[in-house]
# Entry
Amino acid sequence: MFSLSEENYLKAIFHLERKYQAGVSTNALSEEMDTKASSVTDMVKKLSEKKLVKYKKYQGVKLSEKGRNAAVEVIRKHRLWEVFLVEKLNFNWDEVHEIAEQLEHIKSEKLTRELDRFLEHPSRDPHGDPIPDAEGNFSVSNKLLLSELEKGQEGICVGVKDSSSDFLRYLDKNKISLGKSILVKDKEPFDESMLVEIDGEKLRISNTISANLYIKI
Amino acid sequence: MFSLSEENYLKAIFHLERKYQAGVSTNALSEEMDTKASSVTDMVKKLSEKKLVKYKKYQGVKLSEKGRNAAVEVIRKHRLWEVFLVEKLNFNWDEVHEIAEQLEHIKSEKLTRELDRFLEHPSRDPHGDPIPDAEGNFSVSNKLLLSELEKGQEGICVGVKDSSSDFLRYLDKNKISLGKSILVKDKEPFDESMLVEIDGEKLRISNTISANLYIKI
DNA sequence: TCCTATTTTTAGTCTTATCTAAATTTAATT
DNA sequence: AATTAAATTTAGATAAGACTAAAAATAGGA
# Structure
């Protein structure tokens, strides 16, 4: 149906639309895709001809319904494979991204459907990101960033905003994993660092950390 | 490491070398790959520069040690994924080939290793073909074709030579599956057709069928 | 051996997805 | 409003992997 590159562009546009709640500029897309702006222009024209995006010169792009569906399908596959790798193949959550980047392009409806069944219809990937269902619907959850909590508030860790290896390994090292309860014992006004309690252990974390950890109260 | 196309060529050369016990001609390869002979020449030159094959103009190609290892690795992945699809994802043995053709190119040593472990180190794929181990060793088995059996001989069905959907579905329809015992009740000299007994049921099969079913006595 | 048919290779073209460099448009600032 | 800076697009080039058509090499038969 769509080429590997096309799928990657659609996915990138989807993520950027979410992130900025707006149309996506050529430069933003070129940064996300790690290509030159001129390459983006070429591809965007192609996607536009295929009616996958709405594009007006110098005005950025937006996904069409068709483009959004294609993007969501790729994201669904990516996240299902991540679950598979962690749950069944003993991968750590910081190792799955690149492999899922490959697996997400495998074309077979039945494969996706059966993988979903095999994994018992997971609703979130190992990083806490929602897995859209076969119709493309995301479950919405009212999560907030740990950095938004005040002293005395408590919540459950439900996801990560940054899913780089460095961050995930930091969390592993400090025994912070999804599902755990976090209590804000203290918050330093000067640098926004926090003293938190997890499993009865106290830990001081910087704002960089707390601004990348999703919490549900 | 290697491109998708390169891997497919290496795999094809491997299979043809096996089949004909000889170097592989450009035409044979172009037929196997479903491309034109001129395309084969181009690719073969490239593989030769990369030391993956030995190639002399007009003399056909042979895999080098390096090329053979690469080919075997792809075949290993292909067959492991086929097992996964059948054993875990409810695929029938006639549905797995094209998907495995995609999955075999996923690059991750750990993935292959863990998949192998997850599947409990299967020695054969759903069609009875051997799965090479991580070092590239194939288990050899002294199987023979059903067509080679004489009246009165009995054996266990261990593999298929042709794994086209048509053939596999024929076998399904007639309740012939790997592991079943087959007894040759009669063999017709004129057309080489056979009367066989499986699970106490008698069935007449043509030579086309019996020449594509591997048996172990 | 010579000639012809077949096989293989070469030469040149195409498509996809990328790039660089230059041109153009938009946005920002005075 | 004019000018400059930034963003975007155009034009032309490249690499991979395929193609067609034509040339060259090999093999088989008289």
Notes: The longest helix of chain B spans residues 65-87. The helical segments of chain B are 4-20, 26-33, 37-49, 65-87, 97-103, 109-118, 165-173, 207-210.
